[in-house]
Amino acid sequence: MNGQSVTSGVLNPGYFDWNKTIEYLTYNVTATLKDGDNVLGVALGKGIYRAEKPLGGRYYKFLTTSHPMKLIAQLQLNYTNGNCQYIVSDSSWLTTVTGPLLESSWYGGEEYDARKELIGWDTPTYDYSTWKMADISTIPNPNATYRARQSPSIQPVEEITAISVTDKGHGTYVFDLGVNHAGWPKLSMRGPRGTTVTMRPAELLSSDGTINQETEGTPIYDRYTFSGNGIETYVPIFRYHGFRYLQVENLTYVPQVNDLKSYTLRINNDVTGTFNSSIKLLNDIHKIVNRAVQSNMFSVFTDCPHREKLGWLEQTHLVFPAIQRFFDIQAHGRSIVRRIAEAQLNNGMVPSTAPEYPIFSGGFRDEPNWGNSIILLPLYLYQSYGEKALLEEFYSNMVSWIDYLTSKAKNNIVSYGLGDWFAIDQSTPVGVTGTYGYWMSANGLATIAYALNKIADAQKYSDLTSNISSAFHTTYFNATAHTYATGSQAADVFALEMGAVPITEQQNVIQHLINDIRQRGNHTSTGEVSLPSWFRMLSFYGHDDVVYDFLSRTDSPSYGYVIIHGATSLTEDWDGPAPARGQSLASQNHFSFGAVDEWLMCSLAGIKQAANSIDYRILDIKPAIVGNISHIKVTYRTTRGWIETQWNRAGTTFTLKVMLPYGSIANVYIPGTDATSDYGTLIQVRKTEPMTIFKIESGSYTFKSVINVNTKRN
Predict the structure, then answer these.
(1) Mean of the pLDDT values across residues 487-513?
(2) Half-sphere exposure (CA, 13 Å, Cβ side) for 526?
């Protein structure tokens, strides 16, 4: 408005299915108005809406029918006398396509000619005599619903400065920003009028030090033509890159390292958690997970910020606890649930991506552990924030999904899908993974039905849950080997989490799992789907030491391996930038293996919501004292306020400090003997294990005990 931006949000309005919903944004522009003439100006880029072949052979993920770019806008004037005036976009509005932006491909990059800049185009003094009247168009579906956006906007949340620049000869320079991230490069440069420079983002370098775009789609590049007016600064604002390096070609001078900065972009969800430990490797693991989460936190949770930029759904629930402990995603999650429901087909199937832009086939469109997000994401939002209205609004969608899965099941076994995606051990049958997804859906819907007081439905889906567990055991149990299916770690943890393992066999199956981990050199063999269960089941059965042994590894496959080989964000593959098993390079910015953050917060730091608690009303504080860790401190903000746990171990003395917000209570489990508390109420001293339990309400507490923990790893 009059040359001033009316919002700090960028890349608006974001992803939605424009055939079903048109999301609009509202801004208060009072401060930008002035007496006399005023100008409202809007610059449009293609976004994901106009997916056509880009200029210059740039990379694209998919193509759609070319759509003209469209705008619907309204300026509402509220006068002091109570009257309102509306200025609505119509054919009297002026438009031009002769500006500097020649290409704004969502995937492939921008083409910008600074010689064509329209200086002052959005101010009252500009000469619009060559502009044309706007064409009147229709929205893709006249029956679509208009809805105000519910989630925070995408914003720049961090400015990064390059740490080095390397001369590769012939006017080519490679900048290193130090971290792999999603955002906008901001390059200040100069050149003769009409000279063009090309900027190529990348996650990795080739052996010769030039950029390598193998992991992100190629070619992706921005191109800038100089106006010749001194120092010119360019930011490609109509798309974003996932990158660490920027290769700039055809410069006529030697640039300085501080010529390049980058704005990290993401949905501006509040930060709600912190993690710190005495072990640098654990801190670094958390950092790369957190960086990958932020790099994919846009209007939907994407899988990667470059080659796909699509809302793959499995991560919304598989990694939900890890995301939710560090960011407030209540409103953001609510908007994603709506997109999932809008993508659901009439037969109940939920596509693996939402909004569903390209139509995939097979398991890439129809997958039990992707589609079950229609149940699990609303459930987790309810458990974390008390979002009960979501359960009521989308209950029929959930029932349709369960009915669809049931129609695909044979004797309660679901044998289709992608399996345990990116697993080290590829032997796990698809039926094992698919049936686990079916069970998670049924169990989740039973929980939701109870919450909504739909007693008959709750019993129905509870029975279905039991029947699926029984069928899983009957179909896959190997009594001789005390394992399931092929004996993979995935099969064992699925069976344990589903309650499929008889009580008499549980310790045998756990031991089989641990033996396999030990035989693999303390490594997991799981993929994306089974990894969260792997962490949860080992912790539930008292084997956090096994988890820590894995997290201490720096050989392949492990988090430590990708870190020592230079990863600064979590990678799609267990080997990250240095494939060790003959596989091709994968994305270097995926948060699909991010479930480790759940273990760091819930098990190591010990902050868990109690069973059947909602909105963190009741907590279990039970830290895992493992390995050579001497110090842990975490904070977590619930809707009730901040929770903090901090534990220290010095010799045989263990100290735990806990802070609870008003409205929460907790059972605190203190390991060791001779436990004391300054204010907590003693509940129980266990005789079967060295453990004392206290009950506390809101406030700050300190607990001490004597421990004798063996820190040697087998």
Answers:
(1) 99
(2) 31
CA atoms within 13 A on the CB side of 347: 8
Coil, strand or helix: which one is 495? helix
> Cβ-count burial of 291 within 10 angstroms (0-12 exposed, 13-18 middle, 19+ buried)?
buried
Tokens 């054919």 identify what position?
91
Please give the full DSSP string across 106-130, using - where no structure is assigned: TTTEEEEEGGG--TTTTSTTS--TT
Q: Please state, in angstroms and as integers, the Cα–Cα distance from residue 691 to each residue in 390, 622, 627, 654, 657, following that order.
A: 39, 10, 18, 12, 16
The Cα 671–Cα 693 span in angstroms is 9
Task: For the domain covering 273-604, report its CATH number.
Answer: 1.50.10.10
- CATH 1.50.10.10 region(s) of the chain? 273-604
- Overall average pLDDT of the 289-305 stretch: 98
In 233-296, which residue ranges form alpha helices assigned H by DSSP? Answer: 280-295
pLDDT at 713 over 60: no
Per-residue pLDDT band for 391 (boundaries 50, 70, 90) equals: very high
| H or E stretch covering 179 | strand 172-189
Strands 641-650 and 631-638: antiparallel
Burial environment of residue 599 by CB neighbours within 10 A (0 to 12, 13 to 18, 19 or more): buried
State which fold the 618-706 domain adopts.
Maltose phosphorylase, domain 3 (2.60.420)
- Rg of the chain's alpha carbons, rounded to an integer? 27
pLDDT at 579 > cutoff 50 = yes
- CATH 2.60.420.10 positions along the chain are 618-706
Our CA angle for 619, 621, 624, nearest 5°, is 145
Q: Band of the pLDDT at 595, cuts 50, 70, 90?
A: very high
When pLDDT is averaged across residues 531-558 and rounded to a whole number, the result is 98
219 class by beta-carbon count within 10 Å (0-12 exposed, 13-18 middle, 19+ buried)? middle
Dihedral sign of CA atoms 483, 484, 486, 487 in order: negative
Q: Express each pLDDT in 35-48 by its tens digit.
A: 999 999 999 999 99
What digits encode the pLDDT tens for the residues 205-215?
Answer: 999 999 999 99
Centroid of chain to Cα 272:
15
